[in-house]
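Quick check before the chapter quiz. The format below is the same one you will see on the exam, so make sure you can read both the input and the output lines.
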Amino acid sequence: MPPPLSVPAWLWAATIATLLGLILLDLIIVNRRPHKVTIAESARWIVFYIGCAVAFGAGVWIFGGDEHAAAYITGYITEYTLSVDNLFIFMLIMANFAVPAIHQHRVLLIGIMMALVMRGIFIGVGAQAVQRFSWVFWLFGGILIYTAWKFAFNNNDDEEYDPNGGVVRLVRRLFPVTDTYHGSRLTIKQDGRRMLTPMFIVIIAIGGADLVFAVDSIPAIFGITQDAYLVFAANAFALMGLRQLYFLLGGLVEKLVYLTYGLAVILGFIGVKLVLHALHENELPFINGGEHVTWVPEINNWVSLAVIVTVLTVTTVASMIKSRRDTRRAADQSVSGQPVSEQPVSEQPVSGQSVSGQSVSQPADQASN
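Here is the expected output.
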């Protein structure tokens, strides 16, 4: 792996300021006119954010060289792909809390801002760890190989993510929460006391879910590059484009039936790459007497990029073929009068649902601040 880029403090500051500016612009647009995000609008924002990510990659190529550019592009694609798998959980959270369609964009934006801050902390700690302790590569490699095994062989549909788990339960226990939404407000004053709204809870759930996902994604990108600047940039651009991808794909994510297996291959591949790198950097006394194992091959970033793109292409095409075949089979069965097994479809929740699944109405902001 190439040595990390020498990034001055002013460039770090400029990069973070630019990212915050983009997020602030998005937040201002959302606050000015809350609305249900259309497919066309999502597509335009995705093109914009991908364009920003590509422009950043071009800058890395020009000023940092092709190896660092390949590392950034590979990391960005990997993080973005892992984020697509996370959309299943986001859909589950949105449906469970019955988030009104006009506020879903705001929920995702604030939740992802929280996730970006937490990932930044993880990346800083991880970068210091991989520079000081070579055994961290073994740890990250083991995490990725285990996660790949779970994706490939333990993908049990019965093991559903609990949107009300962990931090959400703790917040509910510590603070009073209203039963209904009050526009986009996070807190209201009701009966003389300050209360949280379901909007606050769902943002915590989104941010917490992404923090859990970081356990896979952060080791994965450190398996591609140990450059903290590139790791942070790839994560930031992947996260910023994620919420628009949520609205663009919607229920189409369920058609990517082989995506989990593709992710298993990708994570397994990066895990093996990390193990090979750990052998090269070995300092553990019980392996080769604490000496580096130089005879094992190292996988460069261009090979990693080719493998990841190939796996994604194959799994996407195979998923589309299977989805089309299943649709045709269902149509044939319907015409012939045979019973057709219904496939669960993720639906956008409506504002008439409550966070507990019961019917509620949207109050007209009768509570006072």
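If your answer matched, good. The chain has ten helices and two strands.
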